[in-house]
């Protein structure tokens, strides 16, 4: 399965909608998108993972890398996910302590860190 990416602006946040599988083959596409957004001055990102069917360690690495990039600019990276099988990956790896994870884009956009 391929990876679909689209971006939109909601308030002062840039929302990246991700669909499909984030794995060793598709993760570079997501990495490129996150790098491009940060290089363009978008430091407050929301990654909407509602359409993600699969996430592996490569995908986790890309998200952690994105978080490091935005934090270097005093930014933030929030995740939107309420699929139990994807949330379980974040719990097992301890990344629920690293990423703010929200149940909707609206919640992520209005949250304060």
UniProtKB/TrEMBL annotation:
SUPFAM superfamilies assigned to the protein according to its UniProt record, in alphabetical order: SpoIIaa-like
PROSITE patterns: STAS
Database matches in InterPro entries: Anti-sigma_ant, STAS_dom, STAS_dom_sf
Annotated TM spans: none
UniProt xrefs under CDD domains: STAS_anti-anti-sigma_factors
UniProt domain STAS: residue ranges: 3-112
Family to which the UniProt record says this protein belongs: Belongs to the anti-sigma-factor antagonist family.
Name used for this protein in its record: Anti-sigma factor antagonist
Lineage of the organism: Bacteria, Bacillati, Actinomycetota, Actinomycetes, Kitasatosporales
Gene that specifies this protein: bldG
